[in-house]
C-alpha cells in the first residue's frame, strides 16, 4: 500500500498501474491481485488504512493526559489540520472533496473484491464518509475528554478548508 500511496504523488489514480505498484513494492502483480482482488480493492484498502491511521492519531492525542483538557482539545484540532495537510487522502476523507486524482475508496457497484487478504477484508467493511469521520472523532473526543467535541472537530475541518491566520489550536483554546 505504501507503493500505491507513493504513486499518487506523481500521477492520478487512474494512471496508477498494478504492475508499477507491484514492482515498486517488490512483489508480483499476482500477489497484489491475490491480496486486494483488483485495483479498486487496492484503492479501498489504501483509503481505509489512511482513515484508520488518522483515527489512531486522534486517539494518541487524547491518550496524552499530561496537559489540561483545553490543551488536549487543541491538540486534536491541530492533529486534524496537520494530518490533512500532510496526506491528500486524509484531506479528502475529512472534507469529502475527492479530486479525480484520488481513488475514492468506495466499492464499484457489481464488483466483488474476491480477495481474502486482511487489508482487503478491513477495507470491505467500508470507508467512512466525511460526516461519519467527523462523528467518529467527536465521539472519541467526548469519551476521551468528557466534553462536547463537535465544535472542536468542525473548527478544525473548517481550518483545513480555509486556513486562518495563526493556529487552529489557539482558536480552540479561546473557544473553551
What can you tell me about this protein's structure?
Mean pLDDT is 89; it is low at 108-113. It is elongated, with a radius of gyration of 18 Å. It starts with a helix and ends with a helix. Helix 3 (29-36) packs across helix 4 (39-63), helix 6 packs across helix 8 (130-145) and helix 8 (130-145) crosses helix 9. The protein is built from 10 helices and no strands. The protein has helices at 2-7, 18-25, 29-36, 39-63, 69-86, 88-95, 118-123, 130-145, 150-161, 168-175. The protein has a single domain (2-175), classed as Tetracycline Repressor, domain 2 (Orthogonal Bundle), CATH 1.10.357. The chain is mainly α and 176 residues long. Helices cover 65% and strands 0% of the residues.
Topology:
Blueprint: H1 2-7, H2 18-25, H3 29-36, H4 39-63, H5 69-86, H6 88-95, H7 118-123, H8 130-145, H9 150-161, H10 168-175
Our estimate of the beta-strand percent is under 5%
- The secondary structure category is mainly alpha
CATH architecture: Orthogonal Bundle
Rg calc: 18 Å
Helix share bin:
55-70%
Number of strands: 0
CATH T-level topology? Tetracycline Repressor, domain 2
Number of domains: 1
User: Low-confidence segments, ≥5 residues, pLDDT <50?
Assistant: 108-113
InterPro entries: Homeodomain-like_sf (IPR009057), HTH-type_TetR-like_transc_reg (IPR050109), HTH_TetR (IPR001647)
GO molecular function: DNA-binding transcription factor activity; transcription cis-regulatory region binding
Pfam family, one: TetR_N
Organism: Streptomyces finlayi
Amino acid at each position: 500500500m505504501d507503493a500505491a500511496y507513493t504513486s499518487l504523488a506523481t500521477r492520478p489514480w487512474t494512471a496508477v498501474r498494478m504492475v508499477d505498484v507491484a514492482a515498486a513494492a517488490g512483489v508480483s502483480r499476482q500477489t497484489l491481485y491475490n491480496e486486494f482482488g483488483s485495483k479498486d480493492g487496492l484503492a479501498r484498502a489504501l483509503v481505509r488504512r489512511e482513515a484508520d491511521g488518522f483515527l489512531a492519531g486522534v486517539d494518541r492525542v487524547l491518550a496524552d493526559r499530561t496537559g489540561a483538557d483545553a490543551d488536549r482539545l487543541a491538540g486534536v484540532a491541530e492533529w486534524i489540520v496537520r494530518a490533512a495537510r500532510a496526506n491528500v487522502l486524509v484531506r479528502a476523507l475529512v472534507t469529502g472533496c475527492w479530486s479525480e486524482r484520488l481513488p475514492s475508496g468506495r466499492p464499484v457497484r457489481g464488483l466483488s473484491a474476491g480477495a481474502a487478504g486482511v487489508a482487503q477484508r478491513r477495507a470491505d467493511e467500508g470507508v467512512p464518509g466525511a460526516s461519519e469521520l467527523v462523528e467518529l472523532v467527536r465521539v472519541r473526543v467526548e469519551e476521551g475528554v468528557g466534553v462536547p467535541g463537535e465544535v472542536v472537530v468542525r473548527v478544525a475541518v473548517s481550518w483545513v478548508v480555509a486556513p486562518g491566520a495563526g493556529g487552529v489550536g489557539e482558536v480552540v483554546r479561546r473557544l473553551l
